[in-house]
Amino acid sequence: MLRRAFLAGGLAGGAALTLAACSGTLPKVDAKVASFGRNATGTVHVWCRAATQAGLTAAVAGFNKANPKLQVELTPVPDGQYVTKLATAIRGGEPPDVVDIDDINSQLFIFREAFADLTDVVRGLDYFDQISPGHLRLLEYKDRYYGLPYLADNSQLFVNTELFERAGLDVEDATKDLDSLLAAAKAIRKTGDDVYGWSIAGNSAGIIGFVTQPHVWATGVDMMSGEVGSQKANITGNEALERMLEFYRQLWKDGALSKATYSDAGTTWGADFRAGKVGIFPTSYGATVPAATKAMRAKMQTVLIPSWDGKRSFFDGGDNMCIPNGAANPSGGWAFMQYANGLQPQQALPDGGYFPTRSDAATPAYRKKYPLAFGPLDALDKGYAPQTLAYNLLNNQPSSPYFAMFREAVFGSGTTAAMRTAQSEYQRILDQVQA
Q1: Which residues contact 177 (CB under 8 A, 6 or more apart)?
Q2: In this structure, what are the phi and psi dihedrals at residue 173, rounded to the nearest 5 degrees?
Q3: Contact at 8 Å (CB) between 278 and 272?
Q4: 408 FRET partner, CA 20 to 30 A, in 54, 88, 251, 383?
Q5: pLDDT digits over 365-414, tens only?
Q6: Sorting pLDDT into bands at 50, 70 and 90, what band is 20?
Q7: What are phi and psi of 106, to 5 degrees?
């Protein structure tokens, strides 16, 4: 089963802070020259996350076959080491030519001026208006773009239509808001002693953040407010957040979640759903579809994640490609980035468990081949991931305040005290990384 890096724990979010003293002295990449990305030769050194290596392998092979004078060497880096290793390489003046980086970590390096300004060449792409705005937002700083989206790893609700039919439920009506979801999960639980309405890895910080935050983001609010560098915590008084936490608490109290939820760290994420024992499962395509049987895939349907008031969103996760300042072959790097973002390589991404970041990839042929891989592409404007220097510290690590808040609110004493504690912890971390 393909799994996101969050199953292995959070990244060292503070490592990029060390870039402040040196990134400004790196030779700047000039992407405005007419020859940029053209007639490049030699080698392009590309770093990718080990978790998403499968999404890049075919693109690298295709590029190398088509460009005998310009070859890509792909180096996978363990996700838990990626930020630290990249910061070290940049400080040492020997960065790779292209980094395929978790999009949520893009701002760590952009804010420290470590990535090349690619605004002109990115805006010049003939498919610019089709690119995922959520990914682009994570590449934007002061109205400039510092990379190009590559692959998407989006959270959605997967439902078992057979269990919905057995419970007498209509998928759209039963998934339109939190109240209808709670009612649906309870109704599905009644269809069998070993059947549950909902499944979640309740002891995995990264998974919790990935699948629960879109319930909040759909309303247009986040757990932070303000611009990168001066953000403030927005936990207490956040109605959408409180309603989401109460929703999960009620799922737990009503028995719509299995007792194993409490200790589930995500090592078998999705196995219960693929076995036909769960009605509603917030997850990713890669963690659900590739390992499912053909018969089970035929029972699956996807919808975007709703808020308490009926709006929808999804986590705009995945990878962005960026060129570090100081790269030895930035022109060759841009040539490879353009190739990897071509329509054909993009349309092959579901084979590796991921989605394209271009809405025009969802052609009739693509939809027929990947019937469960186009929901977010039809609603790219609803995708979101926060611009911040502290995502991993706030969400992905076992000690993160979002995870602690969720656990206490759902399995512990309730939402009020959990949110109050999270407010102060969020602010402490934001103050630390923004100092």
Answers
A1: 306, 307, 308, 309, 310
A2: -65, -35
A3: yes
A4: 383
A5: 999 999 999 999 999 999 999 999 999 999 999 999 999 999 999 999 99
A6: low
A7: -55, -45
**Cβ neighbours, 10 Å, residue 180:** 17
Q: Contact, 396 vs 205, CB < 8 A?
A: yes
User: Is-contact 381 137, C-beta < 8 A?
Assistant: no
Half-sphere exposure of 278 (CA within 13 A, CB side): 24
Where in 32-131 does DSSP place strands (E)? 42-49, 70-77, 98-102
Record the tokens describing residue 351, joined without a space.
């084979």
d(CA 178, CA 133): 26
Structure-token match 């990115």, residue found: 122
- Give 206's Cβ-side CA count (13 Å radius): 20
Q: Tens of pLDDT along 138-185? A: 999 999 999 999 999 999 999 999 999 999 999 999 999 999 999 999
Per-residue burial over 82-112, b = 16 or more CB atoms within 10 Å of its CB, e = otherwise = bbbbbbebbbeeebbbbbbbbbbbbbbbbbb
* Encoded amino acid at 325, one letter: N
Contact call for residues 38 and 337 (beta carbons, < 8 A): no
**According to the model, what pLDDT value does residue 15 have?**
53
**How far apart, in whole angstroms, are the C-alpha atoms of residue 431 and residue 317?**
25
Note the pLDDT of residue 34: 87
Residue 104's contacts (CB-CB under 8 Å, 6 or more residues apart) are 138, 317, 385, 386, 391, 392
What values do phi and psi take at 18, rounded to 5? -70, -10
Give the max Cα distance, the chain: 67
Q: Which residues share a beta bridge with 71? A: 43
CA distance 64 to 421: 52
Write the CB contacts of 159 (distance below 8 Å, at least 6 apart in sequence): 171, 175, 279, 280, 281, 300, 301, 302, 303
> Residue 317: beta bridge partners?
153
Q: Looking at 172-251, which runs of residues are DSSP E strands?
A: 196-198, 224-225, 232-233
d(CA 411, CA 408): 6
pLDDT, position 307: 98
